Amino acid sequence: MPHHLNRPTKICKVCGLSFQWRKKWEHVWEDVLYCSEKCRRNRNQIKQTSP
Quick check: helix, strand or coil at residue 10? Predict the structure, then answer.
């Protein structure tokens, strides 16, 4: 069974996509809010959902 199936996931605050735990986030997983550097840079431009 692949290891990646048991990893925790979160939803990105900017793009709304889910992303999985990574080894580099091992000690700061609770603080991770964005799936990528691009989303972190665009954190002030949160997607607006259409009415």
Answer: strand
